[in-house]
Amino acid sequence: MATSDSVSDEKSVIVPEVENGGDFSVHVFSSAEELLSKRQEEWLGKSKPYPAMYSSIFGGIILDPTMMVIPIDDHMVHRGHGVFDTAIILDGHLYELDVHLARFLRSATKAKIVSPFPQSTLRSILIQLAAASNCRKGTLRYWLSAGPGDFLLSPAGCPKSAFYAVVIDHNFSQCKGGVKVITSKIPMKSPFFATMKNVNYLPNVLSQMEAEEKGAFASIWVDEEGYIAEGPNVNVAFITREKELILPFFDKILSGCTALRLLELAPKLVDQGRLKDVRVGNLTVEEAKGTAEMMYVGSTLPILPIISWDERPIGDGNVGELTMALSDLLWEDMISGPETQRIPVPYK
């Protein structure tokens, strides 16, 4: 067997190739410079979907995509001990950053992760990151992890927590077409984990894959009592035939920032006489399938009409008028809402 010294002197070592049983020569990078050069070559001429990243491990903002990495011994990577959140960048403004940050830190507290910075510093970092990215439309995702240190179960060996953030260039627009959904058979998370925006998203991933395999856009989770819960990464809302807007209670699901904003804005349609009421409440599957309109609610949608569920039309099977009226309310708030909702990005 080769020693560590002899391996470092070789360009490659021979290991079995799984696919055809032959020998596969694994390249051994002799230096960080060689690896960096190879990675930079791979990015030549390509668009950069991630124009900027921040890492508290590096202590600054990174513009080179080849260096947008996190340590493999970070407990968020191998133990899932981390939380995250997202804000959007639209027309050069960060929308609802403060409410997302507040939820982010609530999740961190539940996950027993202490932020390396106070909320005001996190906010400043994210605004500076958005400015450095020069991105006018996209998403801003950020994570708090227990940090790097070792591969044990407990984070006791991690010197301190880590904060990461990345800007994603994403040309989203207001959703106007309807989609089909299914009822998920993948078990949903328990309330403790579902109400915390943590990185353990395997149930969400499997639920999404389940829907795609059946030709649907996404899925709907139903809780153990038979009440409507949420989608794989979005909230869900309904308009009854009596013109009531209903969202499920948030006690067992994530309290979506966009969903909460919708509950604040929707009474405008009540004042106009277009809606009768706006509330949260329990809905059974049959009650929900019998509503007049149905929609997903999430940051980059902000509303996505649902026209079919388990091959059964919702309402008349078309995008609902009130669904789009609610979508217009949120979209207008995103592009021209009050300063409390929209933070201008100080691009240089």
Protein architecture, described:
The chain is α+β, with helices and mostly antiparallel strands. It is built from eleven helices and 17 strands. The strands form three sheets. Strands 9, 10, 11, 12, 13, 14, 15 and 16 form an eight-stranded mixed β-sheet that branches. A seven-stranded antiparallel β-sheet has the order 4-3-8-7-5-6-17, with helices on both faces. Strands 1-2 form a two-stranded antiparallel ribbon. The longest helix is centred in the last third of the chain and has 16 residues, at 321-336. Residues 1-15 have low confidence and may be disordered.
Strand content: 15-25%
Segments where pLDDT lies below 50 for 5+ residues?
1-15
Helix/strand order: HEEHEEHEEHHEEEHHEEEHHEHEEEHE
* Number of contiguous helices: 11
Q: What would you call the shape? A: globular
Overall pLDDT metric: 94
Helix content: 25-40%
The profile of the biggest β sheet is: 8 strands, mixed
Number of strands: 17
Cα end-to-end separation: 56 Å
Question: Radius of gyration, rounded?
Answer: 23 Å
Overall structural class, as computed from helix and strand content, comes to: alpha+beta
